[in-house]
Prior knowledge:
The chain folds into two domains: 1-30 and 273-327, no CATH class; 33-272, Neuraminidase (6 Propeller). It contains six helices and 26 strands. It has helices spanning 2-11, 74-77, 87-91, 160-163, 167-172, 291-294; strands at residues 19-25, 34-35, 44-46, 51-55, 62-67, 94-100, 105-110, 114-118, 123-124, 126-129, 140-145, 152-156, 178-184, 189-197, 200-205, 211-216, 221-226, 235-240, 244-245, 249-250, 256-264, 270-278, 284-289, 301-305, 308-312, 318-324. It starts with a helix and ends with a strand. The relative contact order is 0.13. Residues 1-18 form the signal peptide.
Amino acid sequence: MVPILVLFFFCFPNNALAHSFKLIHLPTLGSESCAFDSENGGPYTGLNDGRIVIFEGAKRGFVDFATTSPNRPKELCDGNNGDDPKTGPVCGRPIGLEFNHKTGELYIVDAFRGLMVVGSGGGVATRLAGGRDGVPYDAPDAIAIDPISGAVYFTDVGTIFFKTRNMTEILLSGDTSGRLLKYDPKTRRRTVVLTGLAVPNGVAVSRDGSFVLVAEYIACRITRLWLTGPKANTSETFAELPGNPDNIKRTKTGDFWVPVNIQKLQPKLISFPLGQKINAHGRILETVNFYAEYNATYVTEVQEHLGSLYVASVYANFVGVYRRLQC
Ligand SMILES: *[C@@H]1O[C@H](CO)[C@@H](O)[C@H](O)[C@H]1NC(C)=O
Ligand SMILES: *[C@@H]1O[C@H](CO)[C@@H](O)[C@H](O)[C@H]1NC(C)=O
Ligand SMILES: *[C@@H]1O[C@H](CO)[C@@H](O)[C@H](O)[C@H]1NC(C)=O
């Protein structure tokens, strides 16, 4: 009996013993999102100081890959915290990242420059869509590529971010000025596809391109917009979550990972970071607790890559690699 019990205990998904956790140290803070290229190179990530860096193995660590600012003085910007309103626009602030695996291009949303793209060799990114055609950006945040059409979806978290950066105030604001935008690389047109969103800070497109998901941070839910089929152009609630979500990342098999931060406002704002795996029908398949590794640190992304979960947090100086042990 005993060996069977031990095995069961060891394999239970939430058991702290059943996984390993490794840190990959970053040059500075601000890793909001990670991306991997089609040869599994990476992770690539953006930093507070405006750099997009790529991890080139334990020996070299993270090295510079791209910038969103055409003239980014390294001596002024490297190590910058990104909050200075003077240096921020000069240094850039890449937030969401995702590769188009068919073209090898890395699409980026930058807090100051909006939607950008850079080729597989890196360097200075090109601006694709700024605040044109009468619909300015407020605060671009998350990005996803439709794997079938190549269309780029990205979120604008809304006007609340111009009023306050205090997360308690944002959580209590009830703001619904957020939007989901679409950029079509074929026509170079940018359109607004969904409005009235409650701080949309995550986006992902399904594996077959039939729907797009949007995380609504202050509403603790994920909304689905159908792109094809009989329900095309209609939206519905996809999943209600026990806490505040952030980036949504699709797995190879078509499920999704989303960080879920259980946030308590009193006596001060603290987060209990979880990751949840959700299938294409909105059913929660698995919950992973990162409290042991992140304490009360808010987590912005959980992404499955080659059997590990890459955990990003804008408040940490590392990318976490969480690996469930095989039984
Ligand atoms: C954020 O706002 C809340 C509510 O207004 C306030 O109690 C708290 O002190 C603020 N936090 C910071 C860091 O300013
Ligand atoms: C959905 O909306 C787009 C853009 O407004 C339009 O081109 C398309 O025909 C619509 N599709 C359906 C099925 O209504
Ligand atoms: C969590 O707390 C431990 C123990 O105090 C500390 O070593 C670790 O760096 C903390 N981790 C984070 C992400 O804050």
